């Protein structure tokens, strides 16, 4: 691998782990972070959590697991091309969605409503809580004891009130400084990932059509070239050939624009990256196209009546589960009952957030359907 640039995160400029540990024998600190994430329980659960489509509705739709792997693949490409820390980028990408509730954003919004009087619920903070506290795998500490830089990358945003409680990790939200470039790029790799796979999944589900998609400039531009290059192309092959070109053009644009920003800013160290303006960015033209695609998906896919019917059910499930456990915490599994004796609403939020889509559906049936046990 090419040598890293001096402003990349490395074993020498890392702020380390909360609980000091001997350096790993055959891996970098950031490989170790990635490996810990891959072995975690929360990571395995991502297979049965969804963003837009409920898991059992089809075998071909993205889950949070395949989404995280796609984001990691894009993030690694970006990091390697820019001679940043590829292992760190991978570790952040694989852990960025660990705190997500079942049923995607609806689940998060519903749980946040349930927790309104009890400090709220935010998936980003929950991802951090998962790696810092909830995973039970090591004798010496709670959580996975990841490096500061992986944790910094997981915490993409944070309200100032919460930031104060987080100490050193929260300080940048108060001071207005930036995380590492690896973290900044992962954030945009996430957007590249979900916009493009939602186009693919949206078409596959039949909720959006090729004709509708022509409204989105980035799609229209690429599909025109695909049709010119392959006049006979149709169906899935047309979709995949277009989506792969969109992903590639976004990644290349991001690398070019970010490299220009780095050169213009003159940053030479990680600390200078943290103090500079955000350096990872799309070009102005690409940013506009990307935003337009996001808007298209919001109107035509996320607010599609069939999706709304599903999200309505999801909201009811989360709200019912939370209410039932609040009313009688003895219904919780024993380990959560113990946690509930310290902080009932938070323990219930942890339990509900950890559920997979199908587990939440089953748990709802067990608690509410007469005749089920
Ligand atoms: Mg994501």
- Name every ligand kind in the structure: magnesium ion
- Broad CATH class of the largest domain: Mainly Alpha
CATH 4th-level superfamily of the largest domain: Hypothetical protein af1432
Poorly predicted runs of 5 or more residues? none
Distance between the termini: 55 Å
Helix content: 55-70%
CATH fold group of the largest domain: Hypothetical protein af1432
Largest sheet: none
Total DSSP helices: 19
Radius of gyration: 21 Å
Give me the secondary-structure category. Answer: mainly alpha
Number of strands: 0
What is the number of domains? 2
Q: Return the average pLDDT rounded to an integer.
A: 94
DSSP strand content: under 5%
> Order of helices and strands, N to C?
HHHHHHHHHHHHHHHHHHH
Which key terms come to mind for this protein?
Hypothetical protein af1432; mainly alpha; 2 domains; 19 helices; binds magnesium ion
Structure description:
- By secondary structure, this protein is mainly alpha-helical.
- The chain has two domains: 29-197 and 205-308, Hypothetical protein af1432 (Orthogonal Bundle), CATH 1.10.3210.10; 309-368, no CATH class.
- Helices cover 63% and strands 0% of the residues.
- It is built from 19 helices and no strands.
- It is globular and about 60 Å long.
- The chain starts with 28 loop residues before the first helix and ends in a 5-residue tail after the last helix.
- Magnesium ion is lined by residues 67, 71, 96-97, 190, 194.
């Amino acid at each position: 691998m090419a040598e890293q640039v001096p402003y990349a995160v490395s074993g020498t400029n890392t702020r380390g782990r909360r609980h000091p540990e001997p350096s790993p024998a055959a891996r970098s600190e950031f490989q170790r972070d990635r490996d810990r994430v891959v072995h975690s329980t929360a990571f395995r659960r991502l297979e049965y959590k969804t963003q837009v489509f409920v898991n059992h509705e089809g075998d071909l739709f993205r889950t949070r697991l395949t989404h995280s792997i796609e984001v990691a693949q894009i993030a690694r490409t970006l990091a390697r091309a820019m001679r940043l820390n590829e292992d760190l980028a991978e570790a952040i990408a694989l852990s960025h969605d660990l705190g997500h509730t079942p049923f995607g954003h609806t689940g998060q919004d519903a749980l946040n409503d349930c927790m309104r009087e009890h400090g709220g619920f935010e998936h980003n903070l929950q991802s951090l809580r998962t790696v810092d506290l909830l995973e039970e795998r090591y004798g010496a500490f709670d959580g996975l004891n990841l490096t500061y830089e992986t944790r910094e990358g997981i915490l993409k945003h944070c309200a100032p009130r919460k930031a104060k409680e987080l100490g050193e990790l929260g300080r940048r939200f108060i001071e207005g400084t930036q995380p590492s470039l690896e973290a900044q790029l992962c954030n945009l790799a996430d957007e590249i990932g979900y916009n493009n796979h939602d186009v693919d999944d949206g078409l596959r589900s039949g909720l959006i059509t090729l004709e509708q998609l022509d409204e989105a400039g980035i799609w229209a531009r690429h599909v025109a070239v695909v049709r010119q290059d392959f006049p006979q192309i149709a169906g899935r092959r047309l979709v995949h050939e277009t989506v792969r070109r969109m992903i590639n053009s976004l990644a290349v644009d991001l690398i070019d624009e970010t490299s220009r920003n780095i050169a213009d800013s003159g940053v030479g160290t990680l600390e200078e990256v943290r103090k500079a303006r955000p350096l990872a960015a799309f070009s102005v033209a690409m940013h506009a196209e990307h935003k337009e695609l996001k808007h298209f998906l919001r109107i035509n896919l996320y607010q599609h009546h069939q999706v709304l019917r599903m999200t309505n059910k999801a909201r009811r499930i989360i709200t019912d589960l939370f209410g039932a456990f609040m009313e009688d915490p003895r219904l919780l599994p024993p380990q959560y009952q113990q946690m509930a004796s310290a902080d009932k609403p938070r323990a219930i939020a942890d339990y509900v957030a950890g559920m997979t889509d199908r587990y939440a559906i089953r748990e709802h049936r067990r608690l509410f359907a007469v005749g089920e046990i």
